[in-house]
Write a structure and sequence with these properties.
single chain; 4-stranded antiparallel β-sheet; 532 residues; disordered N terminus; alpha+beta; 18 helices
């Protein structure tokens, strides 16, 4: 084996070359076989013109130790009836092209961004549509001018252009969701996670690409021409009537990866293409197509959720978090997790918020701990027991202060309505644009039901704080608004909708809340002011 290593120069310690593979083997089989030794970042198996493997492949691991363990254990072992040979591999061509090349800084960053997009498992806003594409598409289909849709005449706006654009975007997103559902793709699963927790990252498809940021006049023929490769064409292209987003599927993962590398962030009709591999959970059994695409969109948009199902919650249950204060700045998340697992049970994860190191600080890591963290538990009992056991204990020379986070006592989830005898009817809207007004919120949310109360908290300077509370007459109307507007943008900002906490709305609760907010007011009320 050592003599074979000399054939390779500039080998990559994380990359392995596997040969003598069965021609009927697939990348998924090989990836699953090597995943027993660590996380596999990439698995590439070249194929011939008949989509059959050529008998060799390249496997890249996340760490050098995992690659070394896999090579020692699998070299000369049986895999699907053949004794495979595992050797160190040369560095990938994309890596060599970055070293010692004369490309500009801009091109180098562009190449790095494309490579990162291939490995990214989180993605972003799969329901993203261009604002101009929404208006142009509706104007063309309805036979109107763009000014008529946005209520603009002779260069003068009617004052509700932003609300009209948000409602138009909502209609387009709902139409896309219904179209993909009829073709076996669940749009809800395409919504990307923003968390950095690797446990919540979804497994991505190796053959299906989600194409975003499309112009309104895109056609299927143009997409087929753009995504066709020498010797292979896409097996299926799904383009909704809105023509703002598409799904391109290939019969082989090699062609999908090659197309992704060549077309990511490339210009298509003067706009860049935003690509990401579709999550595996988004593919489901196709629904029977009883009506046309337009009829299906209207049918599902008219259906309202039943009041009995409004209180349904996920079977996995909510999480219960404990707030940990006075942490040592050198304490890591793994150390905090180990400290809680040592004394309590039912621990899920631990997270410590980080911040950038201030300018002029001593040498050290670029990010540093903020001195507090959160530990999630599987049940409320485990969280309460952890607070009782670890409050006042020492960790790395600091006395810990623990407490249940707000919402852990009730187990309410932000994305699901809280369980109660009466369906919830109050929403909290975050990330509200600062130029938005209360009237525009009334117009936007009032399109989905009758509003009982709208509150937009303001600061001392008169500007609002960037969030609002809206209460509907019924819980059914609130659920409809939550479902329709959860992916809508207003003035270019994504509205984040949550179910509002109504536990403090009783008279006694409001009194206690006011007492917590103004503890000094009652003390200083009768205090005499003395002038010297």
């Amino acid at each position: 084996t050592d003599s074979r290593i000399e054939e390779f120069d500039e080998t990559d310690p994380k990359r392995l070359f596997v040969r003598n593979i069965a021609f009927d083997s697939t990348e998924e089989d090989l990836r699953a076989h090597f995943s027993n030794f660590g996380k596999v970042e990439e698995c590439h198996m070249p194929v011939d013109d008949r989509d059959k493997g050529k008998g060799f492949a390249f496997v890249s691991f996340e760490s050098q130790e995992n690659a070394s363990s896999a090579r020692s254990a699998l070299d000369g072992m049986d895999f699907q009836g053949r004794l495979i040979q595992v050797l160190p591999a040369k560095r990938a061509p994309t890596q060599n092209s970055l070293e010692g090349s004369n490309m500009s800084y801009k091109n180098e960053q562009e190449l790095k961004r494309r490579r990162q997009s291939m490995k990214d498992q989180t993605g972003w806003s799969s329901s993203f549509v261009r604002g101009d594409a929404v208006v142009d598409n509706l104007a063309e289909r309805l036979g109107l001018r763009k000014g008529d849709i946005l209520s603009v005449k002779d260069g003068m706006s009617g004052g509700d252009a932003a609300v009209r654009l948000a409602l138009a975007e909502t209609a387009i997103i709902e139409e896309n969701r219904n179209y993909f559902a009829e073709h076996g793709i669940e749009m809800e699963a395409l919504v990307s996670f923003s968390t950095k927790d690797t446990s919540q990252k979804q497994e991505r498809s190796k053959t299906s690409i989600l194409v975003k940021n499309l112009p309104h006049d895109t056609t299927t023929a143009e997409l087929e021409k753009t995504f066709s490769l020498p010797g292979s064409k896409p097996s299926r292209i799904l383009l909704p009537p809105s023509r703002t987003v598409a799904v391109v599927e290939y019969g082989n993962s090699n062609f999908a990866k090659k197309s992704f590398k060549q077309l990511a962030y490339r210009k298509f009709k003067s706009v860049p293409l935003y690509l990401e591999f579709a999550p595996m959970s988004s593919f489901q059994e196709a629904q029977p197509d009883h009506k046309s695409d337009s009829d299906g969109a209207n049918k599902e948009s008219d259906e309202l959720p039943d009041a009995e199902n409004e209180n349904a919650v996920d079977e996995t249950g909510p999480t219960f978090a404990v707030y940990v204060k006075n942490l040592n700045f050198k304490t890591t998340e793994s150390q905090l997790l180990a400290a809680f697992e040592e004394k309590t049970a039912g621990v899920r994860t631990a997270r410590i918020p980080m911040k950038r190191k201030p300018m002029g600080a001593a040498e050290g890591p670029d990010v540093m701990s903020m001195g507090y963290g959160f530990v999630e538990f599987k049940s409320q009992e485990n969280a309460k027991l952890a607070v009782k056991k670890l409050n006042g204990t020492m960790l790395h020379g600091h006395v810990l202060e623990t407490a249940l986070t707000r919402g852990s006592g009730s187990g309410a989830s932000s994305s699901l309505p809280p369980t109660s005898s009466r369906p919830p009817s109050k929403l909290m809207v975050r990330n509200v644009p600062f130029q938005a007004t209360r009237k525009e919120l009334l117009q936007l949310f009032g399109s989905f039901g009758q509003l009982k109360r709208v509150r937009l908290p303001k600061k001392l300077d008169g500007n609002h704080r960037g969030f609002a509370f809206l209460e509907f007459v019924s819980g059914k109307e609130a659920a409809t608004a939550m479902k329709a507007l959860s992916r809508t943008h207003l003035y270019g900002r994504h509205l984040v909708l949550e179910w509002a906490d109504t536990s403090d709305e009783s008279v006694q609760g409001l009194r206690e809340k006011a007492g917590r907010q103004l503890p000094q007011a009652a003390v200083a009320k009768n205090k005499k002011i003395r002038f010297d």
